[in-house]
Amino acid sequence: MALTTSSGASILTPEEVGALVIRPLMETSVAAQVSTVVPTNSHDFRVPIVSADPTAAWTAEGAEITASDPTITEVLVTPKKLAGLTVISNELAADSSPAALQVVGDGLVRDLKRKLDAAYFGNTTTNGPAGLLSLSSTVIDAGDTWTNLDWAEAAKSAAETVHTTLTAFVASPATALALASLKELTTGSNKSLLASDPTQPTSRVIAGLPLYTSPAVADGIVWGIPQSHSIMVIRQDATVVTDTSVYFTSDRVAVRSTLRIGFGFTYPAAVIKVNTTP
Asked: Subcellular localization, per the record (predicted)?
């Protein structure tokens, strides 16, 4: 087979990779939206943690002040490779118009988003990073079924007990629907318990915090996430390349995207897992 300009070549420039893949991925992935996203050019990323503060004490006038040191540890995050693959027509690959590139980028982002969120809200992932289910998080029992929103205040209080603040809740679409169906009164009321954000009419708010939805979260679970303690490290070496040999007989092009992403949870006890126990 004769070599062509598209065989084994990059379909997107580095700038286009950022605009069509990385940026939309960070904007659409729920895991990225509730985390602190940190780019790196290193193989490993170290997050320093002050596990014990220096000690202060009331001191008499003229007395020596006792010196103390903080206890500093670190969380090591090693980004793992996340790869997506899609197939497009050779005509689309040869079309350099922005609309054609957007179609390619959208397909890659959807594939990468599913894998990224599945790893983040999962336990351990083969060849990938460990997710929320692998943590020794704080657990809140919401009862047999979702009947009220008291658990949300309990989750916020649990986070405050360990000196942090929740910034978002995340649930599955089915669980979010169950919560959105709760009414102020058991009978005679159609007013939902969930609040709304006037600046984003389609969003949901629970106890003042945004409620995100992701199919990657198991039904019956709501995660309370403190953004400052959920670190998403992205290695800035994403690539999008094409190959015509695999689908030669159908005149199609395989488009592969790879990037490296890792998760770091600096305070597992600050992550709140709310679940029902039917």
From this structure: Virion
Cα–Cα distance between 206 and 170 in angstroms, integer? Answer: 10
CATH number of 14-49+73-275, picked from 3.30.2320.10, 3.40.50.2300, 3.40.50.1980, 3.30.70.270: 3.30.2320.10
- Whose CA is closest to 98, among 13, 25, 28, 23? 13
Distance CA 65, CA 48 (A): 27
Residue type, 145: T
H/E segment holding residue 29 = none
User: Do residues 249 and 80 touch, judged by C-beta distance below 8 A?
Assistant: no
- The 10s digit of each residue's pLDDT in 185-226 is 666 666 777 776 666 666 889 999 999 999 999 999 999 999
Tokens representing residue 89 in the block = 């027509």
Distance CA 146, CA 204 (A): 16
In the block, residue with structure tokens 């202060």: 56
Residue extents of the structural domains in the chain: 14-49+73-275
Return the bridge partners of 231, or none.
Answer: 36, 264
- Does 252 score more than 60 pLDDT? yes
pLDDT of residue 24: 78
Which two tokens mark 11? 């379909």
Tokens 């992932």 locate to 125
